Amino acid sequence: MDLISEERLSGMNPVEKVRFIIDEVKKDKVLVLEKGLTPDEEANLIEMTMTKIQPDGFSGIEMESYPAQSGNSIINKLFNKGGHRTRLTIIGPANQLKTLKKDRDLITTLLSSKE
């Protein structure tokens, strides 16, 4: 399991982030991102992952995130801040990471050995 700091990902553009995540998950790593992905980055990750799935190889990803704590101030709403980034994201191989329970403050997952 790798814990990835916000600083490490902030130095990458969206395509680099997605490639980095897919490459690491294909190595059977589970990633915990300190600061999650934007909705566009998550969509791109899912789209690229779907093109990489192979019947006897890469089985895809499992991804869970805590929602961002959105600021309710008028300034945040006007400038579209808050609520668009996740606080923490867990990403791993679909055949090894299973989400058992998720709510706004708790993610319970089960890690299993490679099938």
Automatic annotation (TrEMBL):
Record-linked InterPro entries: OapB-like
Source superkingdom: Archaea
Entry-linked Pfam families: OapB
Official protein name in the record: DUF2073 domain-containing protein
Protein's organism: Methanohalobium evestigatum (strain ATCC BAA-1072 / DSM 3721 / NBRC 107634 / OCM 161 / Z-7303)
